[in-house]
Design goal:
The chain is mainly α. 66% of the residues lie in helices and 0% in strands.
């Protein structure tokens, strides 16, 4: 009986984590559509790199740092194209956007 309760607890925790992750990605998509779509596309190169390209090269921490301080990270990453505009996003929006970008890893 205790094993069944433990397994049920673990399963519920897993499902809650997946639901939160899905919600976070959805919120990130909304941030993308509001602030990023003019220069970035999910899978094709536009003015800026695609999210597929970014997700394949960068960690979440690097993506967050670039969103917060694009000029400094632009130099650190050795980019040659035009630097991204600094956005005034809230911490939750940055976190959601970085999760959305990373959802394109491997696509």
């Amino acid at each position: 009986m205790k094993i069944k309760i433990l397994m049920l607890t673990v399963l519920c925790s897993f499902l809650n984590a997946q639901e939160l992750e899905t919600k976070q990605v959805f919120e990130g998509k909304e941030v993308f559509q509001t602030y990023c779509w003019g220069c970035h596309h999910q899978t094709a190169v536009a003015f800026g790199p695609s999210f597929t390209e970014i997700a394949s090269k960068r960690t979440k921490e690097e993506i967050v740092a670039y969103i917060i301080e694009p000029k400094a990270m632009y130099k650190a990453f050795g980019y040659k194209r035009t630097v991204m505009t600094q956005l005034k996003l809230k911490e939750g929006e940055i976190d959601a956007l970085s999760d959305y970008i990373l959802s394109y890893k491997g696509q």
